[in-house]
């Protein structure tokens, strides 16, 4: 599995957590940061998936 997929998944989880905390405490800035982190994580995860596909799912 590509490192981008792992990092992307972590960013998505971090973003979900930040968004939830922001929503719970009424902090719209934190909530927005969480949404941005989630989107960035999704993109990074997708890039990692493409890299995996291009490599034929083989590890070096």
UniProtKB/TrEMBL annotation:
InterPro entries the record matches: CsbD, YjbJ_sf
Pfam family, any one: CsbD
Span list, region Disordered: 1-60
Protein name as annotated: CsbD-like domain-containing protein
Organism annotation: Microvirga aerophila
Biased segments, Basic and acidic residues type: 1-21, 30-41
Database matches in SUPFAM superfamilies: Hypothetical protein YjbJ
UniProt family annotation: Belongs to the UPF0337 (CsbD) family.
Boundaries of every CsbD-like domain copy: 4-55
């Amino acid at each position: 599995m590509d490192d981008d997929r792992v990092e992307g998944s972590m960013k998505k989880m971090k973003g979900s957590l930040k968004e939830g905390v922001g929503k719970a405490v009424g902090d719209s800035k934190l909530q927005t940061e969480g949404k941005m982190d989630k989107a960035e994580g999704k993109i990074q995860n997708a890039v990692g998936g493409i890299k995996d596909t291009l490599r034929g799912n083989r590890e070096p």
